[in-house]
Predict the structure.
Amino acid sequence: MADNRLPIRSVFAPVRALFVGDASAGILLILVAAAAMLAANSDLAGEYNALFNGKLSWTPIGKLDTLHYWINDGLMAIFFFVVGLEVKREIICGQLATPEQRRLPMLAAVAGMLVPAGIYILIAGGDPQLTRGWAIPAATDIAFAMGVLGLLGSRVPASLRLFLLTVAIVDDIGAVMVIAVFYTANIKLMWVVASLVVLGVMMLMNRLHVSRILPYIFVALVLWFCVLNSGVHATIAGVVAALTIPMHRKDGNSLLEKLEHGLAPWSAYAIVPIFGFANAGVNLGGIGMDGMLAPLPLAVAAGLVLGKQLGIFTTIFVAAKIGFAKPPKGASWAEIWGVSILCGIGFTMSLFIGELAFPDYRELIDEAKIGILAGSVISAIMGYVILRMTTTHPDDHTADPDPA
């Protein structure tokens, strides 16, 4: 009797994957981005813009006088705090703990930032005003990319999932460094000194083995306030505060892991979607076809679609051929290429850097968003199709004897 289970499973597997595994956070981001675009290009456009960019009637911090500022400078500090916790855990006892584990992801991530930046400069570098956006296509969105992998279920080798995750983590480290060095306002020395003093207090708490969460949260908020006023972007406080959270265990429990496990779902399913909804919306009516094909969106999209896959795949291939590092175990070169393309999904961090790159030019920010959304969608579709065509679900194997 013919087995009819495979066609039925094939039909419903993508639907099932939407609600399990790695897919849910990424799918949520896709829906949020679509909702933001619909809101910005409908009769609700005025209300959408007023909600996020209208002046607040009251705010406890003068610099944060719109909901948009509170989300980007305040709420996103929690996202960066979770990123910092994840990075520290991975370096101490995770997938970046040894030189062998770090070698290929670090090399691939660096190439995956430099090549997109180079392509961006090549296309948009003729306009000095646009050069500040060079880092926009250099970032990879972990949730979005892992969400696409989640749709493929167990087709993708576990080694490739791990590789994508570690590249994205190293990518996040690079993006944070870029923000701290290249996208800061006028530095205010007094506040920088205050930030360093508060950071020193958190480091001392770590050395003294303070194991309660509340003291760290309180001092981290003070650190965030000082960094906010220092000229360095406030979200950097989230990363550096996370690095002071102790990894040592007390009664078998790690404070860092406890915080990460508690905050990660809030970051993935609340903070990042709120940020995405507040930042992904762009009114296409005011831009027109000329704006969509302008150097800025083309440079961003090309950097994400072409630069990421070229930089990452070439690095892996050359490193393997010269014996510097081994490629992901059990993965074909076609599968590695597909995952390299998925690294061109740059939604969250790219939108964030776009806002920092052109703070006084709304039109340029909107053009950058078009490039980010277009490049991310193209990368997601290309990566999914290539991996869908080149990978095989374990259940699809038959009992036929090995042809060899």
